[in-house]
Amino acid sequence: MHNLIILGTGIAGCTAAIYAARANLNPLVISGPEDGGQLTLTTEVENYPGFPEGIQGPELVQLCKKQAERFGAKFETDLVTEFNKIKKGYELTLSSGKKLQTKSLIIATGASARWLGLDSEKLYKGRGVTTCATCDGFFFKGKEVAVIGGGDSAMEEALFLTKFATKVTIIHRKDSFRASKIMQERVLKHEKIKVIWNSVVKEILGDSKKVTGIKLNNVGTNEVFDFNCDGVFLAIGHIPNTKPFAGKLDLDEKGYLKVDKFMHTNLEGIFGAGDVQDTRYRQAITAAGSGCQAAMEVEKYLSEGEN
Ligand code: NDP
């Protein structure tokens, strides 16, 4: 029987692991398919306190993991497919077939990239359609690419892609971005970046081997037109990873884990941290903060149980 299992190795899970390990709880941290979480898919993080020159996202999360290991946290890769209440805690079933028992659980499974839901998008996934500029930008050296979305991720991806592509076009469904002002300014004054406003993607076009363009619909004029490009980068937000918990834990209408201000879910001994429960801030620092809170609440919960 573990004291604490933490699901997720993003910055929320790793911070929870640092605090729990330093409280001698010997946490086991289970990484899902996206080890390190969304920070591993970003480049420069400029707003995490303590790094005046910025830090690379993958490096930041790697350092947090090392810090947790230093205090005795153990990391494993697997995937929770099911969990059930047992007498003194919970039993998790993992995709490897393994079953683990724990007195408490922190769910920090984060969120995964949202897709448009088009058949043509599925067809060209990995052949020009991607959700990760950091991973795939290099393949578009000397090419023209489109970025879909109007948030900070879209701005960040577009700026990153200017290192490789000859031209980057942001396609956004509205006439203004929701991204932070500083990111918008950088994008709008960049000579390699253009914006197509008020337009939605109807279809990804290609020659069956690779992407050749996008069919767009201007939502103002209803004009449908083709736009030529070699790659399409989707940056249209994320979906919380709560599938194994549906029906057992309270989720909101968008599928985010519901927690109270002490990070408790509706089941005792189960806490949430990071983007899986955050519809509002979704920042590295707020994810880390909530991981700390969850671990401190677990410590309190376990010691109250003992007494
Ligand atoms: P957001 O939810 O902020 O933005 C998603 C964007 O995609 C919106 O512009 C939205 O349009 C658009 N969109 C959503 N669904 C569709 C669709 N089906 N078709 C077309 N467009 C769609 O997500 P982000 O990933 O950009 O950011 C998430 C959080 O992470 C935010 O809090 C952001 O500030 C933060 N972040 C911070 C960074 C930084 O500080 N450096 C970097 C990256 C992210 P609409 O505007 O019309 O709703």
Topology readout:
Layout: E1 2-7, H1 11-22, E2 28-31, E3 44-45, E4 55-56, H2 57-70, E5 74-77, E6 80-86, E7 89-94, E8 99-107, E9 111-113, H3 119-123, E10 129-130, H4 133-136, E11 144-148, H5 152-161, E12 167-171, H6 181-188, E13 193-196, E14 199-206, E15 211-218, E16 224-228, E17 231-234, E18 238-240, E19 270-272, H7 284-306
Helix pairs in contact: 1-2, 1-7, 5-6
The structure holds NADPH dihydro-nicotinamide-adenine-dinucleotide phosphate.
Assembly state (oligomeric): single chain
Specify Rg, calculated over alpha carbons: 21 Å
Structural class: alpha/beta
Question: How confident is the prediction overall: mean pLDDT?
Answer: 95
Give the CA-CA distance, first to last residue: 18 Å
What is the string of SSEs from the N terminus onward?
A: EHEEEHEEEEEHEHEHEHEEEEEEEH
- Poorly predicted regions are none
Morphology call:
elongated
- Please bin the fraction of helical residues: 10-25%
| Main sheet summary | 7 strands, mixed
Number of helices: 7
Question: What is the strand content?
Answer: 25-35%
Number of strands: 19
Listed once per kind, the bound small molecules are: NADPH dihydro-nicotinamide-adenine-dinucleotide phosphate
Structure explained in plain terms:
With 307 residues, the protein is an alpha/beta fold. It has seven helices and 19 strands. The strands form five sheets. Strands 1, 2, 5, 6, 7, 8 and 19 form a seven-stranded mixed beta sheet that branches. It has a five-stranded parallel beta sheet with strand order 10-17-11-12-13, with helices on one face. Strand 14 and strand 15 form a beta hairpin. The radius of gyration is 21 Å and the shape is elongated. The site of NADPH dihydro-nicotinamide-adenine-dinucleotide phosphate has 19 residues, from helix 5.
